[in-house]
UniProtKB/TrEMBL annotation:
<keyword id="KW-0067">ATP-binding</keyword>
<keyword id="KW-0812">Transmembrane</keyword>
<feature type="transmembrane region" description="Helical">
    <location>
        <begin position="1"/>
        <end position="18"/>
    </location>
</feature>
<keyword id="KW-1133">Transmembrane helix</keyword>
<dbReference type="GO" id="GO:0005524">
    <property type="term" value="F:ATP binding"/>
</dbReference>
<protein>
    <submittedName>
        <fullName>ATP-binding cassette domain-containing protein</fullName>
    </submittedName>
</protein>
<keyword id="KW-0547">Nucleotide-binding</keyword>
<feature type="domain" description="ABC transporter">
    <location>
        <begin position="59"/>
        <end position="293"/>
    </location>
</feature>
<keyword id="KW-0813">Transport</keyword>
<keyword id="KW-0472">Membrane</keyword>
Length: 311
């Protein structure tokens, strides 16, 4: 029996290796399925990438239901629209689904039901590469390449001239800083070069986005408080990039929210309130409570939106 057991044991271990391999394959197919899910259409619609070549885009969410995992819906029927050239700010507590909305605009995932529309068509009608070329994002935290500061801006549109790069840097309020560096635009930055402050990095990201000139801009505002001077510089740089451009802001700062054409108050994956700042304050609901909570003692628009809604 023992003689029999050894080979059986051996076979057993082979069996379990094969089974593990199959599980791995299943995972792989799972991943493949996910990739297939966001596949390009057979006959994609063209979409202009740069504002230079076309009007700003229109954006709309129509009754969007979405979750990352089948057992947990995150957005429960979100609808809103942004007319070309307008600015929509999304505010709400942490985990409300704000970043999820921006990921769906990029079509990193497909919705469960409803539509994410750009230029009047579902994002599934476009090639992903074209869609992503038409959208620019200024993230909370910019990662710089280990290269020159000039290259880090030029990356927004490879092939741009030095003149265009400097024009973008001026608009982003970072040109004067760059020329004050020992090697100017040739100064190496990143992990192995000059370390830039958060505010400087963000202005480099803004210059990069100005150069990219996307038709849709997504701003993911930093939660961390900046000093008033840096805050002002960033705000004016952001105005330069969002002017005339359809913009969706994941807002943490009231200065952006106050001027928004529409504010969406998102909580638990639902738009609880919407409207302009003054109307929402007058309404006396959730937004008004948020505003009042941080308005106390506020003498500067650089105040951040509280992450927790007062009840
Ligand atoms: P914050 O203000 O903290 O950035 P948010 O409003 O942007 O929050 P989202 O990042 O959109 O919130 O997340 C919404 C919900 O989805 C959260 O509960 C989060 O845990 C979940 N979630 C986000 N990304 C994933 C993911 N890749 N896989 C699974 N769940 C996720």
């Amino acid at each position: 029996l023992l003689q029999l057991y050894a080979p059986l044991n051996f076979l057993g271990s082979i069996y379990s290796s094969i089974r593990n391999a199959l599980v791995d394959l299943e995972h792989m197919f799972g991943l493949l399925e996910e990739t297939v899910e966001v596949a390009d259409p057979a006959h994609p619609l063209p979409i202009a990438a740069r504002l230079h070549d076309a009007a700003p885009v229109s954006v709309a969410f129509r009754d969007v239901h979405f979750g990352y995992r089948p057992d947990r819906e995150i957005l429960h029927g979100v609808s809103f629209s942004a007319a070309p050239g307008t600015l929509v700010a999304i505010v709400g507590p942490t985990g409300a689904g704000k970043s999820t909305i921006s990921r769906l605009l990029f079509r990193f995932y497909d919705v469960w039901s409803g539509h994410v529309m750009i230029d009047g068509h579902d994002v599934r009608a476009y090639r992903q590469a074209d869609l992503r070329a038409a959208i620019g994002v200024v993230p909370q935290d910019t990662v710089l390449f280990n290269d020159t500061i000039g290259y880090n801006i030029a990356y927004g549109r490879l092939g741009a001239t030095q003149e265009e790069i400097e024009h973008a840097a001026r608009l982003a309020q970072v040109h004067d800083f760059i020329v004050s560096l020992p090697d100017g635009y040739g100064t190496r930055v990143g992990e192995r070069g000059l370390k830039l402050s958060g505010g400087e990095k963000q202005r480099v990201a803004i210059a990069r986005t100005i150069l990219k000139d996307p038709r849709l801009l997504i701003l993911d505002e930093a939660t961390s408080a900046l000093d008033t001077h840096t805050e002002r510089e960033i705000q004016s740089a952001l105005r330069a990039v969002s002017a005339e451009r359809t913009t969706v802001v994941i807002a943490h700062r009231l200065s952006t929210v106050v001027d928004a054409d529409e504010i969406l108050v998102l909580a638990d994956g639902r738009v609880q309130e919407r409207g302009r700042h003054a109307d929402l304050v007058a309404k006396g609901g959730l937004y008004a409570a948020m505003w009042a909570a941080q308005d106390a003692g506020m003498d500067d628009s650089a105040q951040t939106v509280p992450e927790k809604l007062p009840v």
